[in-house]
């Protein structure tokens, strides 16, 4: 199945069912190298519609302390690009349908080379890449390389995005458009679903792909509140914190499932 088809199939199904997408994020390689694939499967079993897999980076400036520490732990274990691709490849042995987006930073892609990175990512079963520090105005060469391989470049919009830039993002967006619900780092605690809702409505009216909201969503209540005006929600820091310190891959998977299931229930109760 092609990368675009996984996105399209997933969001088409959700629309037909009148449901919102639940997209969990966690860092590949944390809480253990052997936990990543079991956790991915556990998240899908708990109701995840897509997965954002964090690619550990030494200077994750958009992330708060929870994900920064997670990234540090994963790097210390050797969770590099090859490891991440291998995890997705193994995940695909049992799951051919769930979209997987790699979320990270530009430097590892530049080191690898954009064309080679995209080709290897797609071969592994990756559907999209979200590069936090790649401005859309500077993305043309990466976009070309990703397009050639069939890899979606998932873009970010935020409360500080100008109308002009928002129009460009809505026109270029692939897979889904990720709306950062407030200006700040991941995991902070000042989410205002009402304020974010106005911006989400504008973006959804203009974007050619679904618009999902992330940053600050930490439990069932905040997920349901933010999903009202979005096509889905992304939850990251709270999930990473819930798994931190798990003694085994099985324990990490069980914690992931227990964390995500109430969010799925809340989203389906408030479509």
Kindly list the characteristics that best describe this protein.
single chain; alpha/beta
Structure description:
With 271 residues, the protein is of the alpha/beta class. It contains twelve helices and eight strands. The protein has helices at 3-17, 36-45, 65-77, 81-92, 106-112, 114-124, 140-149, 163-172, 193-206, 220-227, 237-243, 249-269; strands at 21-27, 51-54, 100-104, 128-131, 152-157, 177-180, 211-214, 232-235. Strands 1-2-3-4-5-6-7-8 form an eight-stranded parallel β-barrel, surrounded by nine helices. Mean pLDDT is 91; it is low at 184-188.
| Cross-sheet strand order for the largest sheet | 1-2-3-4-5-6-7-8
Residue windows where pLDDT falls under 50 for at least 5 positions: 184-188
Strand content: 5-15%
Looking at how many chains there are and whether they match, the oligomeric state comes to single chain
- Biggest sheet overview: 8 strands, parallel, barrel
* Helical residues, percent: 40-55%
Tell me, briefly, the overall form. Answer: globular
The tally of strands reads 8
Question: Which class of secondary structure composition applies to the elements?
Answer: alpha/beta
Please give the radius of gyration in angstroms: 17 Å
Query: What is the tally of helical segments?
Result: 12
Provide the residue-averaged pLDDT: 91
> Could you give the order of the helices and strands?
HEHEHHEHHEHEHEHEHEHH
